[in-house]
Amino acid sequence: MTQKVALVTGAAAGIGAEICRRLAADGMAIGVLDLNIADAKKVAAGIVASGGKAMALQASVADRVEVTGAVAALRESFGPVTVLVNNAGIAGFVPFEEVTDELWDRTMAINLKGTFIVTQIVLPDMKTAHWGRVINISSSSAQSGTVGMAAYSSSKGGVIAFTKTLALELGQHGITVNNVPPASITGTVMYEANKNLMPMTPEQAAQMMPVRRLGEAADIANAVSWLASEATGYVTGQTIGVNGGRVIV
Ligand SMILES: NC(=O)c1ccc[n+]([C@@H]2O[C@H](COP(=O)([O-])OP(=O)(O)OC[C@H]3O[C@@H](n4cnc5c(N)ncnc54)[C@H](O)[C@@H]3O)[C@@H](O)[C@H]2O)c1
Asked: Is 242 in contact with 215 (CB distance < 8 Å)?
């Protein structure tokens, strides 16, 4: 069997880096795409040191020219890309009346338009292979709403709607499209930057969870590993909650 090639965006840190390590352990060759090329190289080097295959790619997911170049480099080195994890995202807590046009547009450009751009650029490889897995990292804030996250939760709601529509369009090509909405995942750059702005301490938040703990990047990577596998050809358009029971729909 030829080795599958996976592209993970926002892969230099946090959840994305853990997803890279997990998919590499599953036997895939990994494109570690991020704005932050120094840390992306560290993630790729760690995978290579563990016996896996990975390369770092620098691009902003919001920039079609940069993403086109990065995907071409990945394809050239490792082959067609048939697993895509749209994970890159930005977040912040801003009261609604203080949200500026600039913040709104930047959030949409990275979280929502970036998902659209990268998917569109990778898609021809999946259609040629008549097999593909697109996994979008959304957020539980899109399901429940979150105070101070109007732009962020709107962008992630868009990611969920995008997932559903693509599943309808691409199922006939052997391509599944699903999304994973995390709740609080500790230890990531995003979580550490925002945890003091949250209404509860991490300990209080953990006690509110049905499973009595906050999430870890590995919790998300486990779900992504399953969604990226051969086992999920009949799972598409779905929102796979990995949130300790914070949101149950
Ligand atoms: N951590 C959480 O609690 C949590 C909760 C819900 C959803 N999420 C979602 O999970 C995903 C990963 O979150 P995380 O906590 O690991 O974040 P993080 O901030 O730790 O890592 C995000 C990575 O994305 C990269 N990035 C940002 N903008 C980019 C761009 N334009 N192009 C390419 N790369 C870019 C950053 O450089 C960084 O390496 C995000 O989509 C986030 O919205 C996280």
From this structure: yes
Task: Specify the ligand 1 atom closest to the Cα of 39.
Answer: 39
The one catalytic residue among 21, 87, 141, 152 = 152
**CB of 125 closer than 6 angstroms to any ligand 1 atom:** no
Q: Does the CB atom of residue 20 touch ligand 1 within 6 A?
A: no
Q: Answer whether 155 contacts ligand 1 (Cβ < 6 A).
A: no
What was the pLDDT predicted at 36?
98
Which residue has better confidence, 198 or 173?
173
> Global pTM?
0.98
Q: Is 228 in the pocket of ligand 1 (CB under 6 A)?
A: no
User: What is the separation, in whole angstroms, between the first and last Cα of the chain?
Assistant: 38
Residue 130 scores a pLDDT above 80? yes
52: phi then psi, degrees, rounded to nearest 5 = -95, -175
Question: Does the annotation mark 234 as catalytic?
Answer: no
Strand partners, 182: 242
| pLDDT tens track for 132-168 | 999 999 999 999 999 999 999 999 999 999 999 999 9
Q: Which CATH class is domain 5-232?
A: alpha beta
Domain ranges of the chain: 5-232
